[in-house]
């Protein structure tokens, strides 16, 4: 059993990573149904929460069916982060997660996200202050370091643990790498193998097959996997990994009927949550993976990502089922 604070999870839990414009309530619901053990919100700006910015406060929406759920916040100003903790608590999450890993320039330039990897003392003091400011478990998601020359993740993880961090998820790249190259899980394993570490250590980065998840568990000895890009438009990834763990075999790929149903539900839930325009627009990024591997699908894919009204998208999905309903995915 793995525990985050008092939250009990199965052995080697699968966590849905916080992803901007992806990990919203509709998508989290689909992933939860398909076996995600913990889900996280999109990352939320502490400054935006304090200003009561609509985009930030909307991301606080969580639902009972998705528990345990973590709300992730980012920032570099202590007062703002503490005030945001108070705001976040009112939404009733199970976990508060701090983003110390986002590599995007607009976040890093403010010293937040992966930008804080240049100031480990600040990273630790912010975490300590937040732990003391809430009764909820505080967790951290970060990267190996700023660049290849500053990888001190074993020391950093231990310091975070020592100030009360309840678990740590580590992406196997530096900020300098962004998302290029291959994720390096060896430094994450070194964190786990540090005899002083007792909190869960989760791996993140390039977990894109059941075999990779098993490798992370069996060879690298980590406590769980945080799944990001492999789940976009493919919430079934979680159940496929668990099936592989249990049987050593790959389960059958979701049928066209399952994919159409998921895409329709995803779109409808998105519209219900964020309105017609945003609901249609922000669901587009998922369609490529929902229907990946279908020959001669380009015309339909183009229509799915350019149609501006939901009625039109639902019509295209109907047409997809009529034309490709018998397609066998392998």
From TrEMBL:
Superkingdom field: Bacteria
Catalytic activity: a 5,6-dihydrouridine in tRNA + NADP(+) = a uridine in tRNA + NADPH + H(+); a 5,6-dihydrouridine in tRNA + NAD(+) = a uridine in tRNA + NADH + H(+)
GO molecular function, one term: tRNA binding
Cofactor(s), by name: FMN
Keyword annotations from UniProtKB, A to Z: Flavoprotein, FMN, NADP, Nucleotide-binding, Oxidoreductase, RNA-binding, tRNA processing, tRNA-binding
EC number of this enzyme: 1.3.1.-
Keyword Signal in record: no
Keyword Nucleotide-binding set for record: yes
UniProt-annotated binding residues for FMN: 72, 141, 171, 228-229
UniProt-annotated catalytic positions: 102
InterPro entries: Aldolase_TIM (IPR013785), DUS-like_FMN-bd (IPR035587), DUS_fam (IPR001269), DusB-like (IPR004652), tRNA-dHydroUridine_Synthase_C (IPR024036), tRNA_hU_synthase_CS (IPR018517)
Domain DUS-like FMN-binding: 15-318
Family, similarity comment: Belongs to the dus family.
Free-text function comment from the UniProt entry: Catalyzes the synthesis of 5,6-dihydrouridine (D), a modified base found in the D-loop of most tRNAs, via the reduction of the C5-C6 double bond in target uridines.
PANTHER family attached to this UniProt entry: TRNA-DIHYDROURIDINE(47) SYNTHASE [NAD(P)(+)]-LIKE (PTHR45846)
NCBIfam families, A to Z: nifR3_yhdG
Protein name according to UniProt: tRNA-dihydrouridine synthase
Organism: Kordia algicida OT-1
Organism ancestry: Bacteria, Pseudomonadati, Bacteroidota, Flavobacteriia, Flavobacteriales
């Amino acid at each position: 059993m793995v525990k985050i604070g008092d939250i009990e999870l199965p052995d080697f839990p699968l966590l849905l990573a916080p992803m901007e414009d992806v990990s919203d309530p509709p998508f989290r619901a689909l992933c939860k149904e398909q076996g995600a053990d913990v889900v996280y919100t999109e990352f939320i700006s502490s400054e935006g929460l304090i200003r009561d910015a609509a985009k930030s406060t909307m991301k606080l929406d969580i639902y009972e069916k998705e528990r345990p759920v973590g709300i992730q916040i980012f920032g570099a100003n202590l007062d703002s982060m503490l005030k945001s903790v108070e705001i976040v608590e009112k939404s009733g999450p199970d976990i508060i997660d701090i983003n110390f890993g986002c590599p995007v320039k607009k976040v890093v330039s403010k010293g937040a996200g992966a930008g804080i990897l240049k100031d480990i003392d600040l990273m630790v003091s912010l975490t300590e202050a937040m732990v003391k400011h809430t009764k909820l478990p505080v967790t951290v998601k970060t990267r190996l370091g700023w660049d290849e020359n500053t990888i001190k993740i074993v020391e950093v993880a231990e310091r975070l643990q020592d100030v009360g961090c309840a678990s740590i998820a580590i992406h196997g790249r530096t900020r300098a790498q962004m998302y290029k190259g291959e994720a390096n899980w060896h430094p994450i394993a070194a964190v786990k193998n540090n005899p002083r570490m007792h909190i869960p250590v989760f791996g993140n980065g390039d977990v894109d097959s059941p075999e990779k998840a098993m490798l992370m568990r069996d060879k690298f000895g980590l406590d769980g996997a945080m799944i990001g890009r492999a789940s976009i438009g493919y919430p079934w990834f979680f159940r496929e990994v668990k099936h592989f763990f249990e049987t050593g075999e790959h389960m059958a790929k979701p049928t066209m009927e399952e994919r159409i149903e998921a895409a329709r539900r995803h779109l409808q839930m998105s519209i219900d949550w964020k309105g017609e325009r945003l609901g249609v627009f922000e669901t587009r990024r998922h369609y490529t993976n929902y229907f990946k591997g279908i020959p001669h699908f380009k015309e339909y894919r183009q229509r799915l990502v350019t149609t501006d009204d939901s009625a039109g998208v639902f019509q295209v999905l109907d047409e997809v089922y009529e034309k490709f309903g018998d397609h066998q995915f392998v």
